[in-house]
Amino acid sequence: MQTDWIVPVKSLFRTATxxxxxxxxxxxxxxxxxxxxxxxxxxxxTTLSGVPEKVLVQDWAVFDDLNALGVAVAGVPSSNAPAxxxxxxxxxxxxxxxLFEPDFEGIAAAEADVYFVAARSRTAIETSKDILxxxxxxxxxxxxVEGVKKNxxxxxxxxxxxxxxxxxxxxxxAKVAExxxxxxxxxxxxxxxxxxxxxxxxGPDSRVSWIYNEVGMPSALASVKxxxxxxxxxxxxxxxxxxxxxxxVVDRDAGTGxxxxxxxxxxxNELFNQTTxxxxxxxxxxxxxxxxxxxxxxQGVLLLLDQVLAGLNG
Length: 314
Prior knowledge:
The chain has about 325 residues and is of the alpha/beta class. It is about 40% helix and about 15% strand.
């Protein structure tokens, strides 16, 4: 029997096997091209190429969110760092300007992959969008909890941390539900802001609107005109007339690093001490920086919710 064909067939088989292995090996080492992702945000849409590695943040609430997700940040604001974030801000982080005045030269030199703005820094996008991909994570004060959750979902999508974002949002929902249950039947509430010896009231569109909107405590005032800084100006006589069951105090002076403890001294007033809230010990001083500087940061909101919960259960 003729067998000349056997050797070539074996040789061909070996050649084909080697070629297949080589192809498989090549398929493993060829780098995958990063897919562009379009991110919708408060000022439009921004396209990102792959997962950002070098991150700049001009807003402490967004830093708070990223820290909660475990995302490293390379650049941060140079002012007003909240005390509750002590130890979480990298010591070697770039200082990229204040909350209101970004250092665009430094931002451009950083050659980062993404730049986040929000609240006070949102107008920076007009300049920064021509330097690097910029995303505005501003939150509507009328629906803070939903805004925080939306931002966590967006950041989870950007950094491939969808499961972690979902877990964090579920924890926030659970905490809100716990505080809401504790507040049920506890009466009316008023959020006071103290500012350079003056009194103001925050309402359902303010920096801590969730006390009314999400926790569900009815406002002791039918109508409140929220101001940017000092709220709706009121007097001690007016507070006694309104007579809230609970008072939650935002000390703006302490929040901006001035006169810590000024709120307690101001509210030690003969008229205020006659209110139901004062007589029952229903006065809660919330973290001034979480309530005034960050407002929309995930960890800051949880801190404030815990403080309100402790006050209601105290």
